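Quick one:
INPUT:
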């Protein structure tokens, strides 16, 4: 295996524990990675006045690939979130979340194998908002009335939903290219174009245009978001790669994670044309931080996605096979999984689980 330099951001809360476990597993799997550690997190506020120092962004830009632990979002400081700031700074417009059943992990569904491709930069998530009774809100309400767009009650707060041709084209193209590279058969675009004709309607129109370029190579269909949710829980096997605008993708990925056993096993990545940051879907879990109780599976599976990205598929598959083995065996599982499998057995520690993963690599 070639040597790779990767920026490692342990984060805070359970982040230092999950990332240390991930490093142990990758070393045992034979991954030749030089880790360059950079910091982010609430604990830096006092020293730097921000949870995301410039030196951390510079380190990611230098190495182009990073893996991070979760970071607590400080409440009431005016700083939105390290994750949102990183996505903006690095233009990582794809949020990639593969959702795969892991037998033994307590999911209600044993046949889920889908990939969620969520747009990461626009839609209601962009944070373009006008508070109630501000001059901006009043102007917009007046504009909507003057243009005949509709009547908005004067006591409204406003959040703008903007979906662009640029944003849609690149995310849908990514979904098709990903499907081609991974040998997947179909891309489904999810929207509410029947109601939001100028935002979701644009998303659907552009998705259809991009899909036409892949005709004969990757199939395409579309689903209205509410019907999609129902269909997903009736029969997940009808879906393959699914591309979403930002907000629907956020909700659908937690729904899908819940179907296969919860946040403890859900990996993810933020990817752009130049940089990629891999991270578990879950947060910093302050309630169990520092107690050696967390489940590092999501971080380990995020690292396997990173190995794929680095072209180290064989090593990635070795890691995934070890995860499947430990869950199928069932004797070393953390408390969150014991809970989702409704087992009365005590959960093991993060260290014990990691030891079992390393033993399963052999
Ligand atoms: P959370 O995901 O941290 O925790 C939700 C519940 O799931 C908790 O009971 C927690 O103990 C449990 N849990 C989560 N991950 C687990 C794991 N690996 N093993 C075992 N149990 C686990 O969500 P939250 O409580 O809403 O958020 C806590 C903080 O994390 C907030 O400040 C939030 O902003 C931040 N957050 C960060 C990220 C990120 O950095 N990517 C993502 C989501 C939330």
């Amino acid at each position: 295996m070639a040597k790779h330099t990767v920026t490692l951001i342990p984060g805070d809360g359970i982040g230092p524990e999950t990332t240390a476990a991930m490093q142990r597993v990758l070393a045992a799997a034979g991954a030749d990675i030089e880790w360059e550690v950079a910091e982010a997190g609430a604990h830096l506020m006092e020293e730097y006045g921000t949870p995301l120092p410039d030196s951390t962004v510079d380190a990611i830009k230098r190495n182009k690939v990073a893996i991070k632990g979760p970071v607590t979002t400080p409440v009431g400081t005016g700083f939105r979130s390290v994750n949102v700031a990183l996505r903006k700074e690095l233009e990582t417009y794809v949020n990639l979340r593969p959702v795969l059943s892991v037998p033994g992990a307590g999911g209600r569904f044993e046949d889920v194998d889908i990939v969620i491709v969520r747009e990461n930069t626009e839609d209601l998530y962009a944070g373009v908002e006008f508070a109630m009774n501000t001059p901006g809100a009043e102007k917009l309400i007046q504009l909507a009335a003057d243009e005949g767009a509709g009547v908005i009650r004067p006591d409204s707060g406003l959040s703008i939903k903007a979906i662009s041709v640029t944003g849609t084209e690149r995310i849908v193209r990514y979904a098709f290219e990903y499907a081609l590279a991974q040998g997947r058969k179909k891309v489904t675009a999810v929207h509410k174009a029947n109601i939001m004709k100028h935002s979701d309607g644009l998303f659907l129109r552009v998705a259809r245009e991009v899909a036409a370029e892949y005709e004969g190579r990757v199939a395409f269909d579309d689903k209205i978001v509410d019907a999609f949710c129902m269909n997903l829980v009736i029969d997940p096997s009808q879906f393959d790669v699914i591309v979403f605008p930002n907000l629907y993708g956020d909700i659908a990925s937690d729904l899908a994670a819940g179907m296969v056993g919860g946040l403890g096993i859900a990996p993810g990545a933020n990817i752009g044309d130049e940089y990629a940051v891999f991270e578990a879907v879950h947060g910093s879990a302050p309630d169990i931080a520092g107690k050696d109780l967390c489940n590092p599976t999501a971080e380990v599976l995020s690292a396997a996605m990173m190995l794929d990205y680095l072209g180290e598929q064989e090593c990635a598959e070795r890691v995934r096979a070890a995860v499947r083995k430990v869950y199928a065996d069932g004797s070393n599982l953390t408390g969150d999984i014991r809970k989702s499998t409704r087992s009365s057995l005590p959960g093991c520690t993060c260290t014990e689980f990691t030891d079992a993963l390393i033993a399963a690599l052999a």
